[in-house]
Amino acid sequence: MFSRWKKAPDTADAEQGSQDTLRSIEGTKPCNEVGCSSTNGAPCEYVDRRHEHCMTAWCPEHQIVLDGHCYCRRHANTIEAIGGIQITTYGAALPDIGNRMPNLVRWISNDLDGSMRQLLDAAHRPDELFKREPVHAVRGIDGFIRWEMTWQLFNQTGSTLRVTIEVDEREPVVVIARVSNAKVYSATPPWIAAAGTDPSGVHAHADESQRQAFYADMASHIREGIAQDREESVSEQ
After folding, report:
1. What is the domain partition of the chain in residue ranges?
2. pLDDT tens digits, residue range 47-70?
């Protein structure tokens, strides 16, 4: 894939966390893992943009350590979703304690990554490069925040084609796909529709055929959107 053309540095590499600085951190609190009787749990060090602290604690077996800091699995995933622990080093405000939208966007985009790279590989032009951006927050002109991740083709004049997966805070369980600025798909993932809650934590329990149908349907709409976008860009030249 992409063997026929040059690829720009993939900014999604920032999502790869550094969990090897410390293997574990011990504390003096009961572990919050269901069924765990350990009393050497360390508190999750996640602090959101409102300065709210995660109140859980986790033993060495059930914690995630990122660059020497202890986190629960949910908030470790949140940090990884928005670009890794390096993002917090520079004072970036972290999502609210209960905000699972970044995790949902990351999960969907990771599952679609291979398909999207294939589609963009087929659609690219000789002068275009490729990059994938990490999950990030965007505040719209209406004041509402959405979380999104983008695959992009670009050349020396700027962006030429963008495929974006996003979730808006007004509908935090609805996944939207856009090609450039056009919305081409909008749906609630079947594992969320079935559970009613927990937009990222029940993925493993969803029916495999439903998951695959969801992704196939989204990819099909994105493919059609890319074809239309390419046709329109040619007609404008």
Report:
1. 14-89, 100-236
2. 988 889 999 999 999 999 988 899
